[in-house]
Write a structure and sequence with these properties.
By secondary structure, the protein is of the alpha/beta class. 41% of the residues lie in helices and 16% in strands.
Length: 437
Amino acid sequence: MKKTLSLTLLIVLLFSALAGMASAAGPLPQGGGQEYTVQADDWLSKLAEKNYGDVLAWPVIWKATNAKAAEDDSFVEIPNPNVIEVGQKLWIPDEAEAAQFFEEFAAERAAASTAGSADITGELNVLCVVQVEWCEGQIAEFNKIYPGLVVNYVRLSSGESLTRLRNEAANPQFDVWWGGPIDSYIAAAAEGLLEAYDSPNAVNLRDPQVMKAADNSWFGIYIGTLGFGTNLNYLEANPGLAAPTSWDDLIKPEWKGQIMIAHPSSSGTSYTALCTILQLKGEEAGWEYMRAFAGNVLQFTKSGAAPANFVGNGEAAVSVVFSHDIVNQIEKGLPLQLTFPAEGTGYEIGGTAIVKGAQHPDLAKLWIDWALTPAAQELGPKYNAFQAPTVIGAEASRPELLEVNLINYDFDYCGSNKTAFVDRFTNEIANADALKE
């Protein structure tokens, strides 16, 4: 009965989305739909937005095209919805047909849900990058589904976790890596540190094109945007100052010795900020900016979220962290004002993956499958984590954190250059000695 209710609700939500798409994008294709030939830079979510007004409608085009391929050789079956090729013929269904495919997709998603079992036993080792409270909360929730498992975890920052995986590559001590920006996951995958896994719940992802690796070596589990957290007491004591609303504000002389941020060698948060600047300004001007910015930093920290706490407690005036970490400290009562850079801010997709050579790969797959469900992704606020979810059906607790000017953040560029960029920052701008914890 419970499973039937869940499926019914899911279908209702999907049909509601379809109705909204029709009104947002104008008339849907009529008379049974229409053919479309793939052009350069096309992907299914982009075509879904163009035809239906919503990127989440991509399964309609995918399923409709595969159905056509079964009866018409001029269409090519698309086994992986993330891979379409120029010249392929797609089918854009009309409203009635689209509704049918939405219903089929809803049923598949429901079938892919993790049911859990008390009969499964064993030990799972998790390398966790998010704050301790969320690490422990997620594990406790996972154990409710699999009470027979013993789940151990170690909490490290993003940079530290990547270094540990590298050092243990010959004898991995962890089964699952959970949390932290996917720049690190892209770097790890390129080094052969991750195990590809075709999770059935990857179908839940809102935009598979950017929210998972093409080879399924990592999956996106949350989204966070960079922001500035400024101490309100400091602003009150300095009435001529206002909270920064631009990256260029941070290199003004009035903020000298008043900024706290993590070091990119240990923190994915700080590396996201670094790579954001390099993309916004170009590498040459970007590195010049980073030198000026570092000159205004009071102290670099090890953890990406820590500066929000330190600044909230008056140790400096401005922190550069992910906005959900600032919200977390505001919720705890610290006097912080959240602002965003008007010219655009970078963002993270937090990842999860199975470690190459994991000692318990089957149990690791259970974790990945669960992490890609709406139920798992809506747990964050319960543990003071306000990141936005990546899967269909999960509601964002703070949608306003995504309603800001985001840059076109290039995850492949940042991931493939991570080692070189971090080394350059450490060697030429600020070393990683004596980071504040």
